[in-house]
Automatic annotation (TrEMBL):
This is Nardilysin. Residues 414-695 form the Peptidase M16 middle/third domain. It comes from Rousettus aegyptiacus (Egyptian fruit bat). It is found in: Cell projection, Dendrite; Mitochondrion. The keyword Calcium does not apply.
Amino acid sequence: MMKRVLMMKMNLMMKRRSMMMMILMLRIMNWKNWKRGQKPERKPLKNRSAPVQHLAGWQEEGQQGETDTVLSAAALCVGVGSFADPDDLPGLAHFLEHMVFMGSLKYPDENGFDAFLKKHGGSDNASTDCERTVFQFDVQRKYFKEALDRWAQFFIHPLMIRDAIDREVEAVDSEYQLARPSDANRKEMLFGSLARIGHPMGKFFWGNAETLKHEPKKNNIDTHARLREFWMRYYSAHYMTLVVQSKETLDTLEKWVTEIFSQIPNNGLPKPNFGHLTDPFDTPAFNKLYRVVPIRKIHALTITWALPPQQQHYRVKPLHYISWLVGHEGKGSILSYLRKKCWALALFGGNGETGFEQNSTYSVFSISITLTDEGYKHFYEVAHTVFQYLKMLQKLGPEKRIFEEIQKIEDNEFHYQEQTDPVEYVENMCENMQLYPLQDFLTGDQLLFEYKPEVIAEALNQLVPQKANLVLLSGANEGKCDLKEKWFGTQYSMEDVENSWAELWKSNFELNPDLHLPAENKYIATDFMLKAFDCPETEYPVKIVNTPQGCLWYKKDNKFKIPKAYIRFHLISPLIQKSAANVVLFDIFVNILTHNLAEPAYEADVAQLEYKLVAGEHGLIIRVKGFNHKLPLLFQLIIDYLAEFNSTPAVFTMITEQLKKTYFNILIKPETLAKDVRLLILEYARWSMIDKYRALMDGLSLESLLSFVKEFKSQLFVEGLVQGNVTSTESVDFLKYVVDKLNFRPLEQEMSVQFQVVELPSGHHLCKVKALNKGDANSEVTVYYQSGTRSLKEYTLMELLVMHMEEPCFDFLRTKQTLGYHVYPTCRNTSGILGFSVTVGTQATKYNSEVVDKKIEEFLSSFEEKIANLSEDAFNTQVTALIKLKECEDTHLGEEVDRNWNEVVTQQYLFDRLAHEIEALKSFSKSDLVNWFKAHRGPGSKTLSVHVVGFGKYELEEDAIPCGEDSNSACEVMQLTYLPTSPLLVDSTIPITDIRAFTSTLNLLPYHKIVK
Ligand SMILES: [Zn+2]
């Protein structure tokens, strides 16, 4: 697959069409110093906060669309990033990005801006990249002007007091600790270390307590003064670009922006320029083979070239053209060939367009291949296949036919895009303003403007073996690696490419006859007509087919008016949850089916017809979306492959080996392990990840898979939803196609698509287990309060409660107590049973998990007081904010479909849920909220703490040294190690030291749906 950054773009056309929405782009003050030469990074390198909503398993499919709304939004990009870090204070730019949030002269409260936004249904974030720093927020329109004024103070007069600096450095440190056990981050850090000495690519952008606090203290460096100095030098108006979007008139917006933002100081100093530092990787260290020990269980080969900066060629997009071909998965492609050999599972190629991969000094072109065990043994041959393909491309030269096909697909995408989140839109746009001339702000990063073969050829001809850097990730490298990366501790070794291969690659080696250019794509839509209704218009989906074998919900779109459709099916079977082995066989089945489809369906995928197969808890979920013209072709292809499912022993082995790695990788992450443990306790009859891992390691045969699949396909209940530019007659055909092709019997009895949940006894239960990755300092602490079988009204009250909790929780646990980077309360719907929880990700090198648990309790007590003293006004403001969020219109059809699909897949069918929730919200008083919270606390409360305990001195161990997989043998992750409670919590908690023994004594709550 090509790195898909360019394709994940937002709907510019839709925005332009919608006349109500005014977009104001405004470059602050100085238009002259405009400089291009960089590319926008799409994914923030470092999020300040990323509060993930964790809904329990049952709803994981996603109740989305609550914040994607017609909120007003703004984003500001400072044209300076981590490249400008001083050598003696690594991470200073990133630290400053954090510090401007900590109060200003005009609004001195720490996190005051967050608190203001939370109160008014908004959110904010920021990220620091190599040459840019971006801040963005959204909020209800009514509060937009005030929010702008508060936010602008970050750039007008932030306080940055010493005490706050001391505490916030811990948040940056936690962010670094969290980032450490990630192979992607490690690979990047190692790559940076290969840069020429003194080149900014080699800097440590993250920063940590060592570089920002302890080292400076030792060397008499005043971080406080240096932060101010950095701010004054680099947060200057003439390097800033700003985008605001709101329903105000352009004149009003312009007036506001001028009034508020013209106070930002402009020092007139030249913008730091790194454009002269080209060829950062023109070093002997670059063209080598690096063996690296990864954190996860994975074999992967990455081949990388460092090219001259390509931003200037954005009208041609040569790397886009090349990655289109290199990442192709159809017949004749690299991946197709490697898959047939059972050597590779996936391939990504191209430039990710982060600041790290493309900046004013260079551009990356890289190809990453996930290898099988066999592929690892043949990694030189794998690399050779890549080089053969590139040599073929160089010989053939650029082809106009291919360029025009890509151009056509991008044009279609652009013209019929669906709207995205305003905040994403402004974020992207303020970066585009730093990169493109005015006329290309909206299109510069997406469209291919002109075909210039010589520009493509120039980039293409650089991609030769002699200039490549090879990185081989594998646990098998453990023990063979004598080097260690300075910041993340990655173990690696450096060697020359084996002589025989080096010689071959120097010679005029032969092309591979199995590799060739892709044929013409038959999935590119050409009919964009909107269809007429063939049945009455409805606001919500209507059941148009209902038989013992299945039913179909249908709604023709009449709102977004785009030539696209969404088709979703749930193939429900009681067979899946019968045993842990069945759950695993089902996983294997879905993985092999996906593998089998990869090549035939790839063309559809690149023509923006997307599909996804998901192994749900109780059934197979098939999702298809895109231009409706050719969509039935893709849907039928998937059903055909399902009906004629088959596998070879080699593919079976490859996929099961891969699944072992996947399970293992889930188990060694404290966050995912904590979720598994919590759900294992709550959802009776659920199979744990460890059960599944064990079943898989015990060995399953291809025969058992084939008989499982046969049985699965023979008896089902199929439920579908079709929405978009499709008639009801066409929709009925989708269900008919499934029923006819699979020819299955109906289920003998109706089955629930939920787990039954245990009723927790009163008291505070504590389940404390050791993390399974010995090298990982991260701990995860979740304190969960069970509420029970509740009504829709009570569910809404819980949502309101959690909304009130969010900002105080962040302020208390993260800012004041500095317990960790990820800190959040959340409303939990566990198979229909209501509850809420507070989660803190911390590090055993800093805190003991029981101390964190105590602090969470302390927070909840302080919150109880806070909420009791809440003013009527503040209560009403929050209610209004939540109502506004729920009233917000969908910005694209996908949101509406997601919401409806969630009702179908959970068999609740309350399509007008939001209206009911809004009605409920209007009926609440402050005392309802206070009493509701009180009812969950105190002696009768049903509390469950889950601790996954990391490795470090606060857990009575030496500090952890992140290390690779071999220190975690397979059998070590096959069971949980329960830890005893320490004196701190021993009197106040009831330990759980055997989950099955504990849950088998409990009452089961009845199946419950939240529909009234
Ligand atoms: Zn950060």
